[in-house]
Design goal:
This protein has 235 residues and is of the alpha+beta class. The protein has helices spanning 13-24, 63-70, 84-97, 100-114, 117-128, 146-163, 172-178, 201-214; strands spanning 6-9, 29-33, 48-49, 134-135, 139-143, 167-170, 188-192, 196-198, 217-222, 225-230.
Length: 235
Amino acid sequence: MQRSDVVVLGAGIVGICVALHLQKRSRSVVLVDRRGAAEETSFGNAGLIQREGVYPYGFPHDFGALARYGFNRTIDAYYHPSALPRLAPFLWQYWMYSRPARHAEVARKYSKLIEHCVSGHDALAAEAGAAGFFKRRGWIKAFRTARERDKRFAEAERLHSEFGVNSRALDPRALQELEPHLAPVLSGALHWTDPVSVDDPQALAHVYLRLFERLGFHREQEKGFHLLMKWERKA
């Protein structure tokens, strides 16, 4: 293997995009994956480019949520009790960074990256011939109670004011018109209009990968790992 500037570990959608952008900055890159491209998380993720996701998921601070996580009674996360001693330092830092003031600080920095997620994918998709994968319908979060609905509506207004994230509030009638197959028991919904969805995340990753290879990379397999590598630096 020839000398390279960067090794990217993981050939999922993020790893492939990182490798592509490094190549565009004239870096020699090796992309490594223990299986194949987009065969793990990127094989069946939600397929959503979340422009509205300016706040990263925080560690819960309310007692009810902590109890659900503590007793492994949530689908959001699952842990083995034997792993807690090793996880404890990380979980403590995660909890500290999720405190309201620190979480808001993180969001202000994080939002600078999220702001360009759709336009960045649009540029790659245009170059790779993958624009047809994108559906510009946003996504909808529905609410059972008026209390939760009004809380989320207020948050959406704040995100629009602070970060320019767009959404629209749906009352029960508007939600029923938009999604007529839903049972009429919900109190409303929030339609995030900026995000872009992808029906087949793995297929999109493979198209990006073919662009990566066209730009001067060669595919090999070595010691059980799939390697995608660029042999010569672009001028």
